Description:
- It comes from Streptomyces indicus.
- This is Heme-degrading monooxygenase HmoA.
- InterPro entries: Dimeric_a/b-barrel (IPR011008), Jasmonate_Hydroxylase-like (IPR052936).
- GO terms for molecular function: monooxygenase activity.
- Keywords: Monooxygenase, Oxidoreductase.
- This protein is α+β, with helices and mostly antiparallel strands.
- The protein has one domain (25-105): Alpha-Beta Plaits.
- The protein has helices at 31-43, 71-78, 81-94; strands spanning 13-22, 49-56, 61-68, 95-105.
- It has a four-stranded antiparallel β-sheet with strand order 2-3-1-4.
- The protein is globular.
Amino acid sequence: MEITPVEAFELPYYTVVFTSVKKPEAYADGSYPEAAQLMNDLVKGVDGYLGHENASTPGGLSITVGYFRDEEAIKAWRQNLEHQRVQKQGRAEWYDSYTCHVAKVERSYGFRRDA
């Protein structure tokens, strides 16, 4: 499988950057990876969801960047009841800290080396 960044979308669009530091024991019982997979699957059903990217370090820092067509799509995701349930569980069990940044993308470009 080729690893590539998410392509640029028709402007403007929105991005949600979720940066977290997980507790060392977050992976111990397998509930965090299951919940992360559930969130990846559920967000794809949100009208206006465009894609997302994840990156993490061995020390527990994780960044997820989600791309959405508009603020209504972000609101729909934020109001998803299963998403809200997992957020509560994350605060109670998995995260030492997190931040969430929402931004309107007004310019986007990229580069790709031809094979």
